[in-house]
Write a structure and sequence with these properties.
The protein is mainly α. The chain contains ten helices and two strands. It has a two-stranded antiparallel ribbon with strand order 1-2.
């Protein structure tokens, strides 16, 4: 009969790697499930997506923000930011205003309805992953960046096509807002049937 020491001795380096891989995989599951749970809570409580909430946070913190500044603040493409703002304006959560001599410059402001949404939104407002990353030390963040970059290099089906895609869209396994709108506008509308 094998003792625990014998079994441990018979384990290969491959077994240790397998165990370490499974442990890391379980950590990824916790991270991904936590992100999904938070975004579902945001949508259920506020009726907006996580990306829309993050945009509201930035507009509320910096009234008069321009779309380009918003895109930079939340690390998304300007077209994606414009589409998020369009939806927020449609939902009467944000107003666009021209407030300078240059009439081309449009500034963004929360409406009272947008302020109410922000007030009742689940915390952390910017998102659980973003908040957790900000809680790490700069040295830990740099090390994590290095290790994740190595992991990304090893992915066989790597998709780094749009790294500026809002995380909620990526987590929901759906196309970014900009791609969905472009597809909708490119799809010909069916003509209504004519009566004979």
């Amino acid at each position: 009969m094998k003792t625990g020491a014998t079994r441990k001795k018979n384990r290969t380096r491959g077994d240790d790697r397998q165990d370490a891989m499974v442990a890391v995989l379980m950590q990824f599951r916790v991270v991904l499930r936590s992100i999904r749970k938070h975004y579902r809570s945001v949508e259920r409580t506020c009726g907006v997506s996580g990306a829309q909430l993050w945009a509201l946070v930035h507009i509320g913190a910096d009234p008069g923000l321009k779309v380009t500044d918003l895109a930079n603040a939340i690390s998304i493409h300007q077209t994606t930011a414009s589409n998020i703002v369009d939806k927020l304006v449609d939902d009467k959560l944000v107003n666009r205003r021209r407030v300078s001599d240059d009439r081309r410059v449009i500034r963004l402001f929360l409406t009272p309805k947008g302020e109410r949404v922000l007030h009742r939104a689940p915390r952390p407002l910017r998102g659980v992953l973003q908040e957790a990353l900000l809680d790490l030390s700069p040295a830990t963040l740099r090390a994590l960046h290095r290790h994740l970059a190595e992991l990304v290099r090893h992915l066989q089906f790597r998709d780094a096509g749009d790294m500026s895609e809002p995380l909620p869209d990526a987590m929901a396994n759906r196309k970014p807002v900009s791609a969905r709108r472009a597809q909708a506008s490119a799809t010909p509308k069916a003509k209504p049937a004519q009566s004979k």
